[in-house]
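Model it.
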Amino acid sequence: MSDSPVVGHRLAAGPWWLLVSGPIGPSELHSHCAAQIVVHGGAPCVAVGHDVRRGPIVVVPPDVPHAVVDPHDQALVVYVSPESSVGKQLTATEIRDVSSLDAVDPVRHVLGALRMTNWSHADEAVRRTLEHLGIADADHRQPWRHRALNAALLGMPDGIDLHEIDLARLADDTGLSVARMTETMTGGLGVPLGGYVRWLRIVTAIESLVDGADLESAAAVARFPGVDDLSHACTSIFGFDPAALAQPGTWLAAP
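Modeled.
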């Protein structure tokens, strides 16, 4: 079993991150494309390879085998797109010592007065987590959640390049100016357009599942050819099968 979110968790997503708040573990050794940040209590919790890390914050680089060895009633797990600036920093940067969190409840310390009741609180929790790690968050911007633009992007092929898009036609279809849309897609996503389209598809499917859709409907809404394609994409990026979300849950929608 991997890091499967289940009922009782809260989920929120930005253009390059997915945050899950709630109980964690245990799980078998597995790996996935997204970098992962686990905020939990100070006891040994996450094994990276065969090295058990005690936290309070554990960073798992992309494609590195890991497992949750000690369950916790409350944790924050942040999945980060490996193509984003933050994802690259998590892979290449020496992570700051976070022993200063040993004397506190790290999850409560990161959340502070936040209660994970809306998307902006989730965004702030991600920002605070990165701050504790000493990771620059220049690309940590408000997500572009314009419904018309996202709907148009969902229909584009994987690996799409900005230069391949007829911006004038897309702007006309979505009711946005070319200048505004170009600025958003080139600078506001925090991840290359092709990577954002893949991320958007999976997040859209997860959102549909949490809202009660079945797997077939969620795959169709997110423009996957079928359930198997959705399952493969979700497992390869996040390490959990979307079937784990095919039940009621709490999704914190972006403004």
